[in-house]
Amino acid sequence: MQNKTKLVTVITLNYNNPFIVDSINSVLEQTYNYIQYIIVDDCSRNFNTNEISCYIDEHQPGNIVDKIIIKNSKNMGITKSANIAMDNAKGDYIINLAGDDIFYDSKTITEWVKKFEDSKANIITAYRIAYDENLQKKLEILPTPRQVSLLKNSSPEELFEVLTKENFIFGCTTARTKQCIERCGKYDERYHYIEDYPWNLRVLRQGEKIFFWDRIVIKYRTGGISSPLQFNAQYAQDTKLIYKNEIRPYTKHPIIAFYYSKHWLIKRNLDKLWLPIRHKIKLAILKLIKL
Length: 291
Known about the structure:
nine-stranded mixed β-sheet, alpha/beta, Nucleotide-diphossugar_trans, hexosyltransferase activity
């Protein structure tokens, strides 16, 4: 039975996102009826707080018991915006939903709360399905079976070492208790775009267990800030700082971790160059087929 005494905070960060209403509808469709909904917009061009507030009021079925909508006066970045949301979060459990993603189904939050209650976990991560931009074509389910095995069978110390080489704990599929955030701290604002990865590395060093839940929780729309096409100098700088601050001083294998960090940066830069070319080639082939 749903525990109505547990408040759940859903946090949506937004920046110039054309799909924000889809994300909002996904929250309004949830069967869980004790939700605090926080939206933080990072100074988008066409984001109107009053319009969004009225839309939620007009369409919600009663499951939103508190809503906070904030528009930053200037662009502050993902990490700062996430901490602004955290400062306003009152829920026992805190769940992230990006402004271009949607929950997998209407029971996602209800079942997430039950999983927290049954497992007594402080951090729970799960699966996401990646889709194309229109959420029509399924691309892949992550994490992979190998990564899931590592999540289930590694100690915090072991998982930290694994994550120094690859990150497969996604912010969009990871929920935390408020007590855990109060104990471990908020996101590190030295990083502009990447908030979840350094936080996960830190809490693993502190001995926190990250539980894996065998459920798909998010329909992930490709093309967001973490996608290769959106890769930029600031994102690269964040990656270098994470290695310097969160990995090199603590890992047992700094040279190996450095190699993987450099390899990832090179791959992202190459992907950014190649993916648009591949898309143009694909369109050209389709046109030839139709002739």
